[in-house]
Amino acid sequence: MFRSLLTAAAVSALLVGSAHAQDVKTAEALRDKALRDYTAWDITEDLTTSIGPRLVGSPAMARAKDWSAAKFKALGFTNVKVEAFAKPSWTRGEESAELVAPYPMKLNIVGLGRTLPTPADGIEADVALFKTYADLIAAPESAVKGKIVVITQPMVRTQEGTGYGVAGISRRSGPVEAAKRGAVAVLIRSISTSDSTVPHTGVTAFGDGVATIPSAAMGVPEAEQLERLAAKGPLRIKLKLASTVDPKNVAWNISGDIKGSEKPDEVIVIGGHLDSWDVGTGALDDATGVAITTAAAKLIGDLPKHPKRTLRVVMFGSEESGGSSEAYVEAHKAEIPKIVMTGESDSGADRIYALRLPAGAGAHPLIATAAAVLAPLKIYVDRAPNTHGGSDIEGLEEAGVPSIGLSQDASRYFDYHHTMDDTLNKVRPDELAQNVAAWASFLYLVADSDIDFRALKAAAPAAPSH
Q: Which residues carry out catalysis?
């Protein structure tokens, strides 16, 4: 009897080892095939060319919704869903700005997303210039009231893109804080790592109960010029912004599945955001994210046998001004306990250099396997746990779904982010393919496994307090 048990255990171990070896072989084959595959490029090209800019509420966004559903079906996805949710829309109108004194100079500006319009004749006022957001916060009301606030805080270039959060507060909160102090409008130095005159848009605070003022961004050289001029004497600027809001519009989250072969009710949710700002074609932000995750899942869907778990790709419909994350959670709240992992691609398409995991997952044997499969792509496993996988999945994260991050090199991403220069020619095909290779190989390993990230996180020791 004892010998029989040993024999059964040996056979079981052999079968498990054989299955593991097959998974590694399949993941490696997916990785290598992705490096030669053009699906992600074709998706990016088609979305940016056939549809173009995709502002929520625009006719182009409605076309993008239909394009997405058709694309999923054409690529072999099943359970394709188009889920509408209420989303007020904002539309840009005529915009201009000029320095009036000490001499006339046209300023190249773009209104911040969701900004209030100025009166039809514009606003002309003296300038209160601050080199940092903190300087504005520290300023007395007398230095700001009745003036156009100019904030010239620069953004630091980093591989991780961490400079964006620090500098971005000028855009996100600057208009509200300036309004509290009596300012009549705000101009910020673009949240940008470039030295270009092309200005960067991006959402600013808005909504019921938010007191704000007309706000826009200018190119980096102009912000630096105003800073130098302000050191010599008073400045005066005239600003005109026109925009409208439709409070009764809608947006859509569109999804498609690669159905699991053994545990189809266990779902991995990945994706990128379909919407973009109106000034460019949204290539890096975020047509490539949509393309990377769709192409990765499509490669897995083409296998003779699907992995155990279901892969779901979501093209989120309103990331730039928010709403898609909350809408997805509301529509799928009953399913959340069965969503085993989530992740989003939304930092362009330059090469992935690190994999970030849920807390407690690093010691699992599957991760050692993943590290070996990803190593030829020059990707390492980050020891720090993933804390935020993307704006569109933060609702899932808050609901307890474990998230992963495949960190992209963001060194040049913020040169083009939210500008008219965010176009297809900024996408590097070989690096785009490396992204797909990383996503496809790692997703397959997780999808064909029984790894339970929730249980691993619960068993993980608490982080040390400092």
A: 319
